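User: Run a structure prediction on this.
Assistant: Running it now.
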Amino acid sequence: MLYHLLFPLHASYSFFNIFRYITFRTIYAAITALLMCFLIGPWLIRTLGARQIGQTIRRDGPESHIAKEGTPTMGGLLIVLSSVIPTLLWANLWSPYIWIAVLVTVGYGAIGFLDDYKKVIRKDTKGLSPRKKLVAQFALATLAAALIHLDIGIKSTVTIPFFKNLQPSLGALYIPFIVLVIVGASNAVNLTDGLDGLAIGPSIISAGTYMLFAYLAGNVKIANYLQIQYVPGVGELTIFCGALAGAGLGFLWYNAYPAQVFMGDTGALSLGGALGVVAVMVKQEIVLVLVGGIFVVEALSVIFQVTSYKTRRKRIFRMAPLHHHFELKGWAEPKIIVRFWIVSIILALLGISTLKIR
C-alpha cells in the first residue's frame, strides 16, 4: 500500500525513488513487523490471560512443563498479523506471489486458530480431529499449488542441491509435490513447538535464509551468475520473508524462556505453511529439508517413534518429539533451545552454500 501511494511521487520528488528498491522495503517491512509486535504484544497477552486462554499441559509429558499450565496461548495471532500487515504495506500488491503467500499464511493460521479454539475455549482436549485438520491443510495447499503452477505458470522442474545440471521435471506430479512440501513444513513446525522459543528461533533463521533466496531468484543477473532458476517477479517475496522474520523476532521477545505466551497451532501451522509455499515459489523446495533441518528431525523422531512402537513395541527415544528426549535425559530447557538454534544456523549456512557448491 505504501509502495503504491509513495513510489509514484518519485516523478516529482526524487527521494521517493527509494521505494523502488526491494532491499529498502524489506528492511522497513521487518522493522514494521517488529514494532507491531512490541505495540500489540502486551495488549494481546493481557487479553488472552484475562479470558483465561491458557495452555493445557499433558500429564504424560516432562514434569517441568506442569508449571507452564495456564500460560496464554494462541499468540500465533501476533505472528500472523505482524507478518501480513507489513507485507501489504511495503510490497507491490500487483505481485501474485505476495497474495499466494498471504493466502497460505492466513489460511493455515485460521486452521490452527480453530484447533486452538476448540482446545482452549471449548475445552475439547482433542481440538480439531487429525482427519479434519489434514483435509483442510491439503485443500488449502492444493489451491495454492494450482495457483502457483497453473495460474502463474511456475515450471515443474525441481532444483536438486549440490548438482548444477540436475533439475528434473515432475510433470503431473508437481502439484502433489507442492502440496507435500507445504503440508509437511506446516506440520513439522507444529511438532517442533514444544519448548519456549524452540520453534520460533529456527523459523526466524529459515525466513531469513529464504529472504536471501527470494532476492537472488528474482534478480535475473544474479540468478544467471549463480546458475539458479530465475523466477520473474518473485523478488517481492523478499519483503514477505523480511516481515516474517521481523514478526518472529518480535514474538520471540515474549516467547523466550520463560515464555509469557505460546504461539499455539495458530502460529506453528501458519509459519510452516509460509515457509513451505515460499520455498516452492523461489524454486528452492528441496533445500528446505536442509535449512529447516530441525523441523525435519523433530517430525522424523515422531514418525520413527510411532512406527517402532507399533511394529516392535519398543521406543527409540525416551519421548518424542526429539526435544522431549533431551529433556528426559536431564538437559535444561534453555540449553536444548539454544543448541537447537545453533544447529539451525549451521544448517541455514549449509543451505546457502548450495548456491555455489555444485
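The two ends are 40 Å apart (CA to CA).
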